[in-house]
TrEMBL record:
Keywords: Hydrolase
InterPro entries in the record: 6-hairpin_glycosidase_sf (IPR008928), 6hp_glycosidase-like_sf (IPR012341), Bac_rhamnosid6H (IPR035396), Glyco_hydro_78_N (IPR049164)
Coiled-coil annotated residue ranges, if any: none
MF (Gene Ontology): hydrolase activity
Name used for this protein in its record: Family 78 glycoside hydrolase catalytic domain
Length: 531
C-alpha cells in the first residue's frame, strides 16, 4: 500500500494526508522584518479628476509629528510613502496634566486614499464589513507604547482622537510599522540593461506587489482575503521564479493543497492557514485543474523530481474528476451545479473557457506523465486531449462568426477566445487572426481583472507578438501606475475605476497577487531578446 493511501484519512468532509501536511509545515519560511516610519502628514481631498475621486495633499513632513498636540476631536493622516504589510507601534505622551481617563483613538488604515477619505458606515458591499481596516484603541496608561496585535496592509493611516478628558491632550512621540514578508529584495536578479524606465517601474511595482503577498504562504491579498488561492498561487509562482526564488514556499503551498482536499478528492480553490491549515469548501473547476499546471511549472523551474513524483497522483486525479463533467458530446456541461471562475464578470458564461482550461491542463498532465516515464498514462491523456479538442471544434467553434461560443446563448467573450488560444486548440496564425477579429468585436464580453489580462498578454506572446504584449502591459498596468498604484490592484477597469464585484470599491484589494505578473513577462521577454 502506498504512503499516500496509508497516511490519508477523512476529517469531516475533507481528505487529509497527514504526511504531506507535516512536510508542508517544515517549509514555513522565516519572515524578514523592516522598520518603516511615516514620511508625510497628508489630508484627503475630493478631486473628480483623481482615481476614484480622491487625492492626497501634503501638509508637511512627518518629522514634525512629535511636536504636535492633539485634542479630543482632532485627526491626522500619515503617509508611509509605500505599501506595507505589518504591525504598527505608537508611543504616546499625555501633556498638560496626568491622564485621568483612558485615551480612545480610532485608527483607519488605507491602501488607497478612498479608504481613509470615505465613511465606512456607508459601506453596503456583500463581503463582511470586518475586512475594512479600522479599529478603536483604548490606552489606559500614559505615557505608553502600544503595538497593535492585528497585521495591517496599508500606506495611509488616519488617527482620530475620540476621547481624552478635560485635563489632558496627547502627542504621538513615535510611530512606525514593522513590515513583514518572506521575500528578500536582495535576492532579485538585476534587470537587463536594455529595459526602459517605464518597464523598469512596472517591474518594481510588480515585485512590491508579490513581496507584500508573500508571507508564510502566498496570500492572494494581505488586506483581503489573506488566503492561499490556487489561481493566484499559479501566477505568483511564475513571478517568484524570475525574482525572489523562494521555491520552497511554492512547494509548501503545493503540498498544502494536495494534503487537504475535498471529499471527492478535488483540490480546493483556497486554503486557510490558521489555526491549522485546512481546505475551504469552495470547488472551482478551473482552479482545481491549475494544480496540474502549477506542479508542472514548479518542476520546470526547480527540477524537483521527488515532488513531481509524489504529487502526480493528485494532479492525475484532477483530470479524472474534471472529465466527469463532460456531457455526451465531450463538452463541459453548463448548468447550475458547478462553478468556474475565469474572470469577474456577471454576464460571462464559463463553458468554453472551462473546456479550454481542461485541454490546457491535460496537456501539462501529459507532459508530467512523459517526464515520469508513465507511457500508458501519457497515451491515455493524449487520447482524452484529442477527444476534447475534436468536441471543442465541432460544438464550440462558430464558423460563421469566426469565434468560439459558450453556453446556450452562444456567447462570445474575450475569456473564451484567449483560453482556446492558450490551450492551442488553434495554431499560431489562426490564433492571431482570432485575436484581431476579437479586437473589433464590440459586443464580446470584456475582461475586468488583471488576472484575465495576464492571460490575454500570454496569448499575444503565444502568437509571437512581443511588441503588442509589451504595449498592452504599458497600457493596462501602466494605467494603474498613472492612477497612483504603488502595488497592483485586484481589479482595474479603465472605463469604470470604481468597479467592484463586491458592491463597493472600499472592499477591493489594492495589493493583489494575481496582478503581479508584469515582472514575469518583462524579464522573460528581455531575457529571450538578449539571447
Amino acid at each position: 500500500m502506498s504512503e499516500k493511501i496509508i497516511s490519508e484519512r477523512r476529517v469531516g468532509e475533507h481528505i487529509v494526508n497527514e504526511s504531506w501536511m507535516d512536510q508542508a509545515q517544515q517549509w514555513i519560511p522565516k519572515l524578514h522584518e523592516q522598520t518603516v516610519y511615516p514620511e508625510r502628514i497628508v489630508r484627503s481631498m475630493s478631486d473628480s479628476h483623481a482615481f476614484q475621486g480622491w487625492r492626497m495633499e501634503t501638509i508637511g513632513p512627518a518629522s514634525v509629528l512629535p511636536k504636535q498636540t492633539l485634542r479630543k476631536g482632532d485627526e491626522i493622516t500619515l503617509d508611509f510613502g509605500q505599501h506595507l504589510v505589518g504591525y504598527v507601534t505608537l508611543s504616546l505622551l499625555n501633556v498638560r496634566s496626568n491622564a485621568d481617563a483612558p485615551l480612545r483613538l480610532k485608527l483607519t488604515f488605507g491602501e488607497m486614499p478612498c479608504e481613509v477619505a470615505e465613511d465606512f458606515s456607508t459601506y453596503e458591499g456583500w463581503l463582511s464589513r470586518s475586512w475594512l481596516q479600522d479599529e478603536v484603541l483604548n490606552v489606559d496608561v500614559l505615557p505608553g507604547t502600544v503595538t497593535l496585535n492585528r497585521r495591517y496592509a496599508f500606506r495611509y493611516l488616519k488617527i482620530e482622537v475620540l476621547d481624552t478628558s478635560i485635563r489632558y491632550d496627547i502627542q504621538i512621540k513615535d510611530i512606525y510599522c514593522r513590515a513583514v514578508t518572506s521575500a528578500s529584495m536582495d535576492a532579485i536578479p538585476p534587470l537587463p540593461e536594455n529595459i526602459d524606465e517605464e518597464l523598469a517601474q512596472l517591474d518594481l511595482v510588480s515585485i512590491r506587489t508579490l513581496r507584500d503577498c508573500m508571507q508564510t504562504v502566498f496570500e492572494d491579498g494581505p488586506k483581503r482575503d489573506r488566503r492561499l488561492w490556487i489561481g493566484d498561487l499559479r501566477l505568483q509562482a511564475l513571478v517568484n521564479y524570475e525574482t525572489f526564488g523562494c521555491n520552497d514556499l511554492v512547494k509548501r503551498c503545493l503540498y498544502l493543497f494536495a494534503g487537504s482536499r475535498l471529499e471527492g478528492g478535488q483540490v480546493g480553490a483556497c486554503l486557510y492557514e490558521k489555526p491549522e491549515p485546512y481546505v475551504d469548501d469552495i470547488y472551482l473547476y478551473d482552479y482545481a485543474l491549475f494544480f496540474i499546471t502549477t506542479l508542472w511549472d514548479y518542476y520546470e523551474a526547480t527540477k524537483d523530481r521527488e515532488t513531481l513524483e509524489v504529487l502526480w497522483p493528485v494532479a492525475r486525479e484532477q483530470i479524472d474528476i474534471a472529465l466527469k463533467r463532460l456531457d455526451a458530446r465531450g463538452v463541459v456541461q453548463d448548468d447550475d451545479t458547478w462553478y468556474c471562475f475565469l474572470d469577474w464578470h456577471e454576464q460571462l458564461n464559463k463553458q468554453a473557457g472551462a473546456q479550454a482550461i481542461l485541454i490546457y491542463s491535460m496537456k501539462r498532465g501529459q507532459w508530467i506523465a512523459r517526464e515520469l516515464g508513465l507511457s500508458a498514462q501519457e497515451e491515455q491523456i493524449q487520447m482524452q486531449v484529442q477527444q476534447a479538442e475534436r468536441a471543442t471544434l465541432h460544438y464550440l467553434w462558430d464558423e460563421e462568426q469566426g469565434f468560439f461560443i459558450s453556453g446556450e446563448g452562444r456567447q462570445v467573450s474575450w475569456a473564451s477566445q484567449v483560453w482556446m488560444i492558450l490551450a492551442e486548440v488553434v495554431d499560431k496564425d489562426a490564433a492571431w487572426a482570432l485575436l484581431q477579429r476579437l479586437m473589433n468585436h464590440k459586443e464580446a464580453i470584456p475582461m475586468n481583472t488583471p488576472y484575465m489580462m495576464h492571460h490575454y498578454v500570454e496569448s499575444l506572446l503565444q502568437c509571437g507578438k512581443k511588441e503588442e504584449a509589451l504595449a498592452q502591459i504599458r497600457a493596462y498596468w501602466g494605467g494603474m501606475v498613472k492612477d497612483g498604484a504603488d502595488t497592483f490592484w485586484e481589479l482595474y477597469n479603465p472605463d469604470d475605476k470604481t468597479y467592484s464585484p463586491y458592491g463597493s470599491n472600499l472592499i477591493n484589494s489594492y495589493c493583489h497577487a494575481w496582478s503581479c505578473t508584469p515582472s514575469y513577462f518583462i524579464r522573460r521577454i528581455f531575457a529571450s531578446t538578449a539571447c
